[in-house]
Amino acid sequence: MSAAPALLPRAAELHARLVERLAPLELEVIDESAAHAGHAGAGDAGYGTHFRVRIGCDRFAGMGRLARHRLVYDALQEFLDRGLHALAIETVDRRPGTAQASPSAAPNANPNASSNRS
After folding, report:
1. What 3-state class would DSSP assign to 87?
2. pLDDT confidence of 44, banded at 50, 70, 90?
3. Rounded-to-integer distance, Cα 10 and Cα 82, Å
4. Max mean pLDDT range (3-12, 70-79, 90-99)
5. What is the rounded distance in angstroms from the CA atom of residue 109 to the CA atom of residue 54?
6. 3-state helix, strand, coil in the chain (%, to 5)
7. What pTM did the predictor assign?
8. Of 56, 54, 65, which is closest to residue 94 (Cα–Cα)?
9. Which residues pair with 27 in a beta bridge?
């Protein structure tokens, strides 16, 4: 059973929450829900269930991928409770050669993404 469309999160809400909680230096939030239509957890709304986040912040310094992902999941827990079904996370350390992408991170980006790049 999927959440009612009025409860489903929007990219702008996730973006605002991550800015509030983690003060990222780099942030991109992409709603990929429409690409998952017909899949488990996708619902009928066409938004709010599948997101991709690329984020870099000073708090990630010295942390491994799992700890970084936990910070992001903790910041977005309210949205998971509201129906966010899948979250692909790519964390970025601003030092050269230190990007740590989740195994599901893909190079394709949705042009309807909400972004804030430094």
Report:
1. strand
2. low
3. 11
4. 70-79
5. 10
6. 30, 20, 45
7. 0.69
8. 56
9. 55, 116
Residue 19 dihedral angles phi and psi, to the nearest 5°: -65, -45
At 75 the pLDDT is 96
Residue pair 65/91 in contact (Cβ under 8 Å)? The answer is yes
Written as six digits, the tokens of 40 are 């488990």
- CA-wise closest residue to 47 among 115, 116, 114, 117: 114
Question: Could you tell me if 51 and 60 are in contact, meaning their C-beta atoms sit under 8 angstroms apart?
Answer: no
DSSP label of 64: -
Residues, the chain, total? 118
Q: Which amino acid is at 76?
A: L
State the sign of the Cα–Cα–Cα–Cα dihedral 71, 99, 11, 105.
negative
CATH superfamily of 5-106: BolA-like (3.30.300.90)
